[in-house]
Design a protein that fits this description.
18 helices; four-stranded mixed beta sheet; 18 strands; alpha+beta; single chain; 486 residues
Length: 486
């Protein structure tokens, strides 16, 4: 019996004493819902679930785990796409939930800044900012469950990256508990601070492998004065690319979001949402969803910009048809169609989901060339691309042939498909993970395709900050040479 197993009862007793009944449990019924990732690809085991309520409790619990050699898997809303918040099957790790840490600590309206704890849900942040006539410029389909800590830890993207950037661009300050239980605190933002490395940037996107994010100071923007949400029918993704450039030229900074989805994705969503209907009377091979916004001080010119932009696009034969949302309800209905693609595709059956990016100028070419190559190489599959064309990131899903057994198909044929897709992405100078992170689903692929120098640096940083590999082990950083299975 290992030293760790001998001390398990002692660890459990100390953890319960430290966090109390609400803060630590081994009840399998309470733990079970948090052991499987959102996509259902990974299910693990945990020796317990810790739910600290303060940063001090997180720090004390991490010190306790370090003393007993117990690995920790941090978890926010458990809405990630890469299995990064799911424990392994050993049952030797403890889940550390940040969901009880859900306070908004401070709100500086004059500076347009807010300090949130890690468990604050994104929708809650949006609502709090809106009450003060401000907004947080990052949103995504899972805004009702995704937490600030998870968004920071994965450097989340979403549908507003084109104009405002990823989560990294929104973080002004950070608080995190390190592997030894010490607290790193840079919550107070400074316009100028040249005291060495910007250490918070190392933690952003590190997926809980270097430190556990407990709070963040985020930038806010003035509320918008008005918006126009437009649904457009297109002949091809090349026309979508032309439309993007056209809108950028004519609307400039008013362009807030530009999403594309093929007919297959729209049809899947319409089947999935019983009350949904297509925005256009006819079906088109491709669709674009565009949002234009104006500042809080004026909205009168937005309608004119929208009309001129669409009229010119028609004259240039870029678009086939278009409809402007008549009100906020219809605008939200348009966005619901886009936000429902992932669950709609999941409902169809097994699929391999690839969150990839290539240079913006080459994305349309990539989709047109690679999709048929994948379908030819793996007969019966359907390759579908959708997403954020404006920032070079699309979600490239390869759907299994009808009737394929879920789980078995992904492990066998799906694995070969992902290796092939990632090879093609690398050939095109792209990234195998644009916004969903590496987690455990892409760790071996990062090891296989990643730059050796970059991988060496990542391993060195991991070893320096977490020498005993206690923080989210088996995620993101490939610590040793692994096989090609993604």
């Amino acid at each position: 019996m290992s030293r760790w197993m001998k001390n398990l009862d002692q660890f459990v007793m100390e953890a319960a004493n430290l966090l109390g009944k609400r803060g630590f449990t081994r009840d399998p019924d309470i733990i079970e819902p948090w052991l499987t990732d959102w996509r259902g690809r990974y299910t693990g085991k945990a020796l317990g679930l810790a739910s600290p309520a303060t940063t001090a409790e997180v720090a004390a619990f991490v010190r306790l785990c370090a003393g007993h050699g117990v690995p920790i898997v941090p978890q926010g809303g458990n809405s990630g796409m890469s299995g990064g918040a799911t424990p392994d099957s050993s049952g030797t790790t403890v889940l550390l939930s940040l969901r009880r840490m859900n306070r908004i600590r401070s709100f500086d309206e004059m500076a347009s800044q807010i300090t949130c704890e890690a468990g604050v849900i994104l929708q809650t942040l949006h609502d709090a900012a809106q009450e003060r006539r401000l907004r947080f410029p990052l949103t995504l389909g899972g805004k009702g469950s995704a937490t600030i800590g998870g968004l920071v830890s994965t450097n989340a993207g979403g549908t507003q990256v084109l104009r405002h950037g990823t989560m990294r661009n929104q973080v002004l300050g950070l608080e995190a508990v390190m592997a030894d239980g010490s607290v790193f605190d840079t919550l107070t933002p400074l316009k100028k601070d040249n005291r060495g490395f910007d250490l918070k940037q190392i933690l952003i996107g590190s997926e809980g492998t270097l430190g556990i994010v407990t709070a963040a100071t985020l930038r806010l923007l003035p509320e918008i004065g008005g918006r126009r949400v437009i649904w457009i029918g297109l002949r091809s993704i090349q026309h979508a690319r032309r439309l993007l450039r056209h809108v950028q030229e004519m609307a400039g900074d008013a362009l807030e979001g530009f999403e594309v989805l093929p007919a297959h994705s729209l049809a899947a969503v319409l089947d999935y949402l019983p009350d949904a209907r297509s925005p256009l009377q006819e079906d088109y091979p491709w669709n674009a969803l565009i949002e234009l916004v104006s500042g809080s001080d004026r909205s009168d010119g937005l309608g004119t910009i929208t009309e001129k932009t669409l009229a010119a696009a028609l004259d240039l034969d870029i678009i086939e048809d278009a409809v402007i949302a008549a009100n906020e309800t219809q605008a939200e209905d348009f966005w619901l169609l886009r936000d429902s693609i992932s669950p709609a595709k999941r409902a169809i059956g097994p699929a391999m989901q690839h969150d990839i990016s290539v240079p913006v100028s080459r994305m349309a070419d990539f989709v047109e060339e690679v999709a048929p190559r994948v379908e030819e190489r793996f007969p019966g599959t359907k390759a579908v691309a959708f997403g954020h064309l404006g920032d070079g990131n699309v979600h490239f899903h390869v759907l299994a042939p009808p009737g394929s057994p879920r789980g078995e198909w992904e492990r066998n044929q799906g694995t070969k498909i992902s290796i092939y897709v990632h090879d093609l992405v690398t050939e095109w100078g792209g990234s195998i993970s644009a916004e969903h992170g590496i987690g455990q689903i892409k760790r071996s692929e990062l090891d296989r395709l990643g730059d050796p120098v970059a991988l060496s640096l990542m391993r060195s940083i991991k070893h320096a900050l977490d020498p005993h590999d206690l923080l989210n082990p088996g995620k993101l950083v490939p610590l040793a040479q692994e096989g090609p299975t993604p």
